[in-house]
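Protocol step 4 of 6: structure prediction from sequence.
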Amino acid sequence: MRLNHYLFLYKNFLLDIMVKITRVPTGIDGLDRLLHGGFPLGSTTLLVGAAGTGKSTFCKQFAWEGIREGELAIVLLSGEPVSSFIGTMQGMGWAIEGHKQGIQFVDLYSWRAQASFKDSNPGYNIASPSDLNDLNKEFKGLLEKADGRRVRVIVDSISDALLYNSPQSVFKFMQLFVAQVRHKGATALAVLEGGLHPEDQSNTLEYITDNLIEMKLGGGKRQMRIRKMASTQHPLNWISYTIGKGIEMKVSPIFG
């Protein structure tokens, strides 16, 4: 009886913590239900998955959810051109044309062509993933210009930084990044290509970040699981999702 009593008190304690934590919706309804409203404010989530699982779609959906709510999305983008990122969002029906002040880019892609990215949207910055000190300065500068708005940060992806820098320098950058996100009360989503890096590097990044979500593709279906989420009671099983107008996930009513 005493053990059951303590278990009851502990469960209520966890539920009380979850209620008090401010949540940042991901924009994926089913996932937000599983997370009791979304990512914990101030946390950094590592999103791991192979090509074709929808990681970039997740990033765009997370950005759009904030933009349409008047928040600022800061995107550190190395996996595709900025124009492609914006074009895909528009193709999903996420019309960011009228929200240009709601998204800022650190362009880490255009340097590959040794050309600056020209666009009428203000706030685009040119940097190289091989200079993490400059990248950190760019990021801190954009955080300071948030003008009191809630901030979402997207890094797509950490894998490019690992290709052009030593693992130790990337780990140091990520430690600073996570601390700045937490200090500023922002919420971040960072992509890592699954199966591309040695296990010890992936494990270190999982340790540095607060949360971990995995995505996989197999047997003709896409699945996602929440491996860890700070101060959040959540299922650990793989859950199927589809990609249509963004990522769509249906979950059992018991998770509501």
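Step 5 (inspection) to follow. The helical segments are 2-20, 29-34, 55-67, 82-91, 132-144, 158-164, 167-184, 199-208.
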